[in-house]
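Notebook entry, structure prediction.
Reason for the run: the old model in the group folder had no record of what sequence produced it. Starting over properly, with the input documented here first.
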Amino acid sequence: MISFMRLGECSLSKSEILNKLLSNSQQYHDTFVHRDMQCGDNPRIISNGLAELTWEMGQLYEASLSLSEEDRSRQQLQHLPKLCAQLLIDGFPLELVDGDASNIPLRWVSDVLTQLHELVSPNNKIRVITVFGVQSTGKSTLLNTMFGVKFAVSSGRCTRGAFMLLIRVSEDMKASLNCDFLVIIDTEGLKSPELAQLDDSHEHDNELATLVVGLSDITIINIAMENSTDMKDILQIVVHAFLRMKEVGKKPRCQFVHQNVSDVSAHDKNLRDRKLLLQQLNEMTQAAAKMERKEENKSFTDVMDYDPDTGNWYIPGLWNGIPPMAPVNVGYSEAVQELKKNPEGFRKCMSVFCMKTILSYI
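New structure, fully documented this time:
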């Protein structure tokens, strides 16, 4: 694999140089688009990249469904779900929830997953892993480190809505994981300052949490603060989501990831924290059960497959010092790798879906 990037300011076009390197001496071919080629300076009207193009594909497809079946424009767009399904197999993400409009394009997502089911059959058993937590707590970075993917990362609200990514399981891991694919779902941060001024911001967080918990076999709850008001608010949202899942007969596994814990070897202190966390979860479960009129649920373990000893992970900070000059903390990658290899959390999860099963939960 060869990467080509520009450092600083340069008048030369990277794409044009690559085209010259790839072309032979007898014939030049514009493999990559550059500004000096014909129509190369046209403004980008649809999108700035392939990921954004998939967002527009869903809008175009759903808009075409309002046309008659004989309409030529509708017929020309009928191949889009299969095209997007192939992009999923190739490693590109699919937008499940439009973060700007808080909308799920149900018909688009359903048709894409149906096409995906047909493309990978009969090897279509999957496990779904989801992460959510407060904004800017390193959720996308955690998934990128754990699975080698490339979800967008930055400070602030870099993820809007929810995105799913398909990872093919290697042959030597299929037996232990008992699945053919992993579906990774990255969500936007809860308690976003941008949405805090809206009247329905709390409902937005509850709906997003309920959706991703309902889809997942394993829910990773990312916590970067301890004993704070924000943490309690997040736990309350989590409990409500899990309580609703029990009503439909689903009891996913839960893993709490505590980030920026400097001394992960302080086992006694962490043990006290785990007991306090479980106590808070039990109290919130009772309060949520009373609100939902499901008062038979007395503890968090009644609604969630959770073990305080194996369901909590303590990960040090990503940086050794203050970025941007600080080096990456090797301990972060090592701790995330241990989480990934956790047999209790990732290899003994009971439920296994096929592609079409996800549709019943959306």
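Summary: The chain has a mean pLDDT of 75.
The old model has been moved to the deprecated folder.
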